Amino acid sequence: MVINAMERIMKDLLDEYKNHLQLNCTCNDCLDDILALTLNKTKPRYIAKIEKITYVKAEFIDKQEMTSLLVKLAECAKIVSDKPQCQSDKKEIDSNHMSYL
Question: pTM value?
Fold first, then answer.
């Protein structure tokens, strides 16, 4: 099985920092939207075995690399939080911010 290691890494970051992101909604739909948007803006890193994720995580020990991921996560969280799609099916979709759907 081929796995995008960044998906696991970004999910862990979102779980760790979601209480610090000042989100308007923390439902599963909004969290999934944040994760999807962030992953679309992040270079994928594929591994063949989940045990090898440690090698990819090791690259983010560097504070600059980790800061870069956190900035992407915060930017995407703001986009989703400003226009959560879970609250109304009738909301007008902003095509600039909804490319993650």
Answer: 0.80
Query: Mind spelling out the 3-state secondary structure of 8-52?
Result: HHHHHHHHHHHHHCCCCCCCHHHHHHHHHHHHHCCCCCEECCHHH
Phi, psi for 100 (deg, rounded to 5): -85, -5
Spell 32-66 as b/e; 16+ CB within 10 A means b: ebbbbbbbeebeebebeeeeebeebeeebeeeeee
Query: pLDDT, tens digit, for every residue of 69-88?
Result: 999 999 999 999 998 888 64
Residue 91 in this model has a pLDDT that exceeds 50: no
Nearest to 14 by CA among 33, 3, 24: 33
Segment 38-52 mean pLDDT: 95
Tokens of 15: 């779980």
Cα 56 from Cα 97, distance rounded (Å): 29
